[in-house]
Each structure stands twice: as structure tokens, then as C-alpha cells.
Amino acid sequence: MAALRAAQLGLRVACVDEGVDGQQRPSPGGTCLNVGCIPSKALLESSALYARIIGEAAGHGIDAGPVQLDVARMQARKEKIVRQLTAGVGYLFKKNGVSFMPGRASFKGKEGDQIHLTVQRKDQEREDIAAAQVIIATGSVPRTLESMPFDQERILDSTGGLALTTVPRQLVILGAGVIGLELGSVWQRLGSSVTLLETRDIFLPEADQEVAQQALKILTQSSGLRIELGIHLEAVEKTTESLNLTYTSGGESRKLCADVLILAVGRCPNTKGLELERVGLAPDGQGRIPVDAHCRTPVPGVWAIGDVVRGPMLAHKAEEEGVAVAERLAGQLPEVNLVHIPAVIYTEPELAWVGLTEEAAQAAGRAVRIGRFPFQANGRAKARGAPQGLVKVIACAVTDRILGVHILGPEASELIAEAVVALEFQASSEDLARIVHAHPSLSEALREACLGVDGRTLNL
């Protein structure tokens, strides 16, 4: 996004990217398109469709007959979508005059206003380039544990978890955050017995806890995921047949057998090998590159965006920072409001939020009023067979300005956009409550929650 926007604004741009596909061909698009957002959503959609056919078709008066699962074809569909989108990036580069350089870049040094880099290509050839401005957008990589190195056969990272060719009988995922929940949902729907082991005592501490606890209840009781919190993993023993895990939970020692173990314990900034020190840069204690509010590093001419800097590790946050940096290079003055970056977890039901949680509002000493509306009372959700979850709106008790919106329910990833607009334009709960929403629609639940802030919900 940074390269494309900079080219649109008339700058001469090269984009260096080391991503390759399964055949080791250059594949631009980064983690998101190649091994993250897009492939995971493709598998989530396929697995959800399979689960709905098995579990819901009969209730709709549809006799689907024997349903056959073909994981290879499901994976092929995923790969096709990835190829189409990465090819689209290549097309956009050509259309906008961006020079695409497959390979990995590292800094050589800085002379005057020129920053020198070396690009190492897959064919072992090197090319030196120089530029007045460099944007570091190298993203993140799966966090590793020294005691459990990935073998990508039975101990996998998130990339390996998206590439399984058979459904594991027993799957254990270490980490019950966004990645763990989404991967667990995929393989549980397809028939795997899935256990998620989380070292934290609180489920999704970054989310509003009222909503998170409802999500935990639905995911464990309705979706069939097994989630254990506050565990301490002591050992993983490999045998020829299985992986034997020993861990403590609630002061008790427990054992678990798995065919496959996926480590989803977070991600780290991808800065290894960039030779940052050659231009005077040093990551902080968490491996992030220090930047100011506009993504400038302490080194003039060097910028950094996305997962390698402060803020949430989200593709849409990185995209907006990339566009903003490109526009600043062209003399414009854009802003990216990190407070209003929406977060989404693509489970069923989906979980999405933006702005303050109730806990954060309390910690900040903010007096608030809260409106809630369950999807159980929403006609469209009932017709879709997806009545679980709720919308929660947090508004200032003095000004009625919306401070946060939290949605657990169908299409939460789409519904949250209206909330982001509301927060960006400093809307009040009354503003949304008085806007006409189509009926029947899922979006009515947000309006009803806003009505609830004033204690005048209509359909509850």
C-alpha cells in the first residue's frame, strides 16, 4: 500500500519483498495475502460451509445426503485465492510504475541524504540500490519457543497450521488468542478434537470482558472447542505415534495426547537480517523499531510501519500507516488514529470491537452509560440461524459521545465499520439511534444498543 500510494503521488518507487509461493516463485503481498489473513479466511469460510451443511441443512428442509470432505480440494481453493490476489498486487505494481524487486533487503549504510541497501535475490545474486527515503514494512513472524522448535510436521507454526493436508484426530493449540481461535475453529469444524491451552488467566484480555466471557461460553459450549486458561506447559514428548504434553492447570498436573501441536503464542517484529545498526537504528526491548506519531524513525529518511512498530499487529493498521507515510513524503499531512483501529476475530460468531472497553473506561475514571442488545432479538439473525451474541455500546455519561463498541455475532467484521465511522466523527449514541437502519438487518442491533444507552430499547 505504501509503494502504490507513493507511486500514485508521482514518486519513483521500488518495493523489495522476499515472499514466495509453494513453487518458490515470487509472491508479493506479505504475510497477509500469502500465509495470514487471506488463506485463513478462505479456510474459515470453507470449514464453516461444511459445518453448516452437516449441522443446519436439515433444519432448513434441505436433505444434503452423505457429505464428503476433500481437504486437498479445500486447500487448492485457498491457494487459488492467494494466487489471484498476489497476482493482483503484481498487476497494480505494473499499473502504477512500481519496480518490484524479489528478494530480501538489508541496510549497507547512509551517505549524505542517500540510504544504501543490498537486495539478496533467491538466485544468490546481489543488487545494491540507494534511495532518499526508505520505508521498513517487513511485518512479523511467528513467535518461537526454544524448547519446541518447529518441525512443520507435528509441531507447527500458524503457517503450517493453514497447510495441513489431513484433519488431525487430536489437535492441540498453544495459545487461545486470535490466531489460535481461528485455526482451532477451522479444524474443529472439519472433525478434529481441538484443545487450546492458554498461559494467560484471562480469556482475550484485550477485549471487553463481558463480551469476551460470552464468546468463551459460546465457543466452548456450542462450537465444541476445549479451552483451558492459566496453564503452564512443562514438557512435550515426541513418540513415533503422538505428542505427549504435560502441563499444570489450577495447581494440578495434567497430560494430553496430540497428533499435531500448533504454536500460536504470538508474533514478533520481523527485523532479523535487516542490519539496522548500519544506519544507526536499534529495536526496543520487544524488537520493535522506535518511531514517532508519524512513523518516522530517529534516522532521517528511514520510516517504519505495521507490525515492526508500536500499536496493534493488524494488516489494516499497517496499510493505513503505509498510505500516510507515502502522503507525508509527498508533502501532505495525513493522520492515523490508532485509538480507532478495529479488531476482529473471525470465529463463529465473529467478535469485533473498536474504542474503549468497559474496563478501560473504568480505569480511566470515565463515567459511562452502556447499552446492550442481543442478536436473539434481531429478526435477521434469527432467520439466518445465528442468534448468538450481542452488541454493546459504551457512551460518555456526560456528553453521550460513543467511546467504544463491541460486537459478538454474525458479520461482526462488517458491522464494526459503522462504529468506526461513528467514533471518528465523534457521534453520540443518540446520533446512531436516530439513523434509519434497514429492516430486517443485522445492523439494527447496533441501533438498538444505542437506544439502550438511554434506556429505551424498542425490541427487547
Automatic annotation (TrEMBL):
Which PROSITE patterns does this entry report, sorted A to Z? PYRIDINE_REDOX_1
Gene Ontology terms, MF aspect:
dihydrolipoyl dehydrogenase (NADH) activity; flavin adenine dinucleotide binding
One Pfam entry for this protein is Pyr_redox_2
Transmembrane residue ranges: none
What does the note under cofactor report?
A: Binds 1 FAD per subunit.
Show where the FAD/NAD(P)-binding domain sits.
2-322
Q: What class of enzyme is it?
A: oxidoreductase
Positions of NAD(+) binding? 175-182, 198, 266
- Residues binding FAD are 41, 138-140, 307, 313-316
The cofactors required by this protein are:
FAD
Instruction: Give the subcellular location.
Output: Cytoplasm
State its Enzyme Commission number(s): 1.8.1.4
**First-listed, main subcellular location of the protein, grouped into a coarse class:** cytoplasm
Disulphide bonds annotated for this chain are: 32-37
Q: Which domain of life is it from?
A: Bacteria
Active site: residue positions: 439
Instruction: Tell me which stretches of the chain form a coiled coil.
Output: none
The record's Gene Ontology cellular component field reads: cytoplasm
Q: Does the keyword Cytoplasm apply?
A: yes
Choose any GO biological process term that the UniProt entry carries and state it: 2-oxoglutarate metabolic process
Further comment found in the protein's record = The active site is a redox-active disulfide bond.
Q: Which family does it belong to?
A: Belongs to the class-I pyridine nucleotide-disulfide oxidoreductase family.
Quote the protein name from its UniProt record: Dihydrolipoyl dehydrogenase
Q: What is the lineage of its organism?
A: Bacteria, Pseudomonadati, Pseudomonadota, Betaproteobacteria, Ferrovales
Name of encoding gene: lpd_1
